[in-house]
Design goal:
alpha/beta, single chain, 2 domains, 17 strands, UDP-N-acetylmuramoyl-L-alanine:D-glutamate ligase, 450 residues, disordered C terminus
Length: 450
């Protein structure tokens, strides 16, 4: 008698966005695998079109998302359609792909993922690579005027770099992701320089770019527009800003009396210069409006909640923390305002370097674990590093430990008084659950764990 073997029916394709994201997260053995070969091969099978007639690619350690947000605002005031791809997201994956600043729907994302699934064959793609291809498909289908593409990590080997930009931007160069990008600013700068192209404007917002990065840019043949260099400058004049940009023909453009933006001024300056270099020169009123109105969730985002001034910031490296500390100092100037900090950080970050700038600005600390992040540091680990950082500055840090950001925030709320500041920072994984909590207008019980 002949034996027959039952075969398993093919697994059904994911039907919902959460199903797709779960599949993408589980499929690839590592979360980060830099390189363009895989993603370029699938892009060729998709016959991936250029995402827009004009493309701006933005790299940098800090300030990338802010730069994209400013360009979105400027293009909107000019009546031009923008399509943006940024990462990571805070509350919903849809935030990563925006048309005219509005996140796309689940259905649009699912349709793009299905097209990629059909085209990829046996090629393995990471979560980020699949998301990048989906974003490029969606932006091309939407028919936007300008595509704004934020690099996920580095630049040279990031999936976004399969698209040649018309203008490239590097907002800043600082130490972060050293395991993948290199141990110092020179190595990291060279990786970011990889987004440049020959004879294409490269806007650099770092006031002291590493020499190796400048050498790499010159070797590529990029047209470098350096903040603080000839024709591109930014001045703080009291509460106002003066910005000078330079046209492709070498003519200076003066923007005077601009309001100080809520997001980093360097990111704002790079956004304006990028559009000027693209030939889409905004007028003074458009720039002033963008500086005044542009904001971004999780970037020094201020919310008045139960009488407290809650500040949410995803700062997760020493350079971003130093900027956050400076902004806190300005906020507190002339006022005796207590600051309570909820902090959670990934374990592969320079946690001591993140904490140190904020030690003088914080009165009480609420350290938390990050249960939603595989690489999250424990609350006790953060508290120990905080103790050392404070001792190095001759002060004693008052701190407690919590199981998650929401519980830490609840304890901070109970320990604070109306009018005081609650700062939530250290990671997207720290800010996101508290931001969701504020949106739901509910608070859990604290879980004080000495």
């Amino acid at each position: 008698m002949r034996m027959t073997t039952a075969t398993q029916p093919p697994s059904p394709s994911p039907q919902t966005l959460p199903d797709w994201l779960a599949l993408l997260e589980a499929r690839h053995p590592v979360a980060i695998e830099l390189g363009l070969e895989r993603v370029a091969a699938v892009a060729a099978r998709l016959q991936l079109p250029r995402p827009a007639p004009r493309v701006v690619t933005v790299a940098g350690t800090n300030g990338k998302g802010s730069c994209v947000a400013f360009m979105e605002a400027l293009l909107a005031t000019a009546g031009l359609r923008s399509g943006s791809y940024t990462s990571p997201h805070l509350l919903a994956y849809n935030e990563r792909v925006r048309i005219d600043g509005v996140p796309v729907t689940d259905a649009v994302l699912c349709a793009a993922f299905a097209r990629i699934e059909t085209a990829r064959g046996d090629t393995r793609l990471t979560y980020f690579e699949t998301g990048t291809l989906a974003a490029l498909l969606i932006l091309a289908d939407a028919g936007v005027d300008v595509a704004l593409l934020e690099v996920g990590m580095g630049g040279r080997l990031d999936a976004v770099n399969i698209v040649a930009p018309d203008v490239a931007v590097i907002t800043s160069i600082a130490l972060d992701h050293q395991a993948w990008l290199g141990a110092d600013r020179d190595a990291i700068g060279v990786e970011k320089a990889g987004i440049a192209r020959t004879e294409v404007p490269l806007i650099c917002g770092d006031p002291e770019p590493p020499a190796a990065m400048l050498a790499a840019l010159k070797n590529i043949g990029a047209r470098i527009v350096q903040l603080g260099g000839a024709g591109f400058s930014l001045y703080q004049c009291g509460a106002e800003i003066e910005l000078v940009c330079i046209t492709a023909g070498g003519q200076p453009l003066h923007y005077r009396g601009l309001p100080t933006p809520r997001l980093p001024s360097v990111s704002a300056a790079c956004a304006v210069q990028a559009l000027v270099s693209l030939g889409l020169t905004p007028d003074a009123a458009q720039v002033a409006r963008a500086f005044a109105d542009t904001c971004l969730a999780g970037r020094f985002q201020e919310i008045i909640w139960k009488g407290r001034r809650v500040i949410l910031d995803v700062a997760h490296n020493p350079a971003a923390a130093a900027l956050l500390a400076e902004r806190l100092r300005r906020l507190k100037r002339g006022a005796e305002t207590a600051v309570h900090a909820v902090v959670g950080v990934l374990g592969d970050k320079d946690i001591a370097g993140v904490l140190a700038p904020l030690v003088p600005e914080v009165d009480r600390w609420h350290c938390c674990a990050l249960p939603d992040a595989m690489r999250g540091a424990s609350a006790n680990q953060i508290a120990g590093l905080l103790y050392n950082a404070a001792a190095n500055q001759g002060v004693v840090a008052v701190s407690d430990c919590h199981l998650n950001p929401a519980a830490a925030f609840a304890t901070a709320l109970g320990a604070s008084r109306p009018g005081e500041v609650i700062l939530v920072f250290g990671s997207f994984y720290t800010v996101a659950p508290v931001l969701a909590l504020l949106g739901n207008d509910t608070a859990p019980a604290g879980d004080y764990n000495p």
